[in-house]
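$ fold --in a.seq
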Amino acid sequence: MDKITLLSLASDLKRIALAIQRNSPKNAQRFQEEALKWLHQSKNSLPKNNDSMGKILEKVEKCLSENNDLRKAEDLLMYGTIIQNRTMVF
């Protein structure tokens, strides 16, 4: 598993959350495109025995497909923090 891709994903998730909270849909959209790129790279490099991270990445993908609102911002901020913390453990 590549730590850099996961940390980049976590960073972009936090940026999306901030953009939504600041009512900046263009920035949120741009960072969402980047986050999807990192998400697909992370899923491809994920080891088969790491089910917990796989489940988190699936939830992130589902969350990214939702409309921009404060709930999405809070969820993305939470997932960004979880991914960042889990990445530091590995």
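$ fold --in b.seq
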Amino acid sequence: MEIRLKREDIDLLDTGKKIIPGTDGNAVFGSLDGDYIEVLIYDLNENFLDSGRVDAGDFVYNEPQIETLPNGNQKPDGGGVKINTGNVFEKIRLR
């Protein structure tokens, strides 16, 4: 499978820069039409088995609490994505 990254995504990966969703003009996950979660399934020997997109009803996104540090930087605390893997695997199996 070939994957093409946008230039801004490559730049982000190359610099190791971190962003906090919802701050400084960064979109909150799920707010853009193109947002999705893809799962890649491998066996214990790292052989690729299958992939699929996670339906909106099969995950919950909890926004992190933003802590402002004494130096003015912001640090996310908690939050993230929780995927109902049982539902996702069953849907992939039944395709």
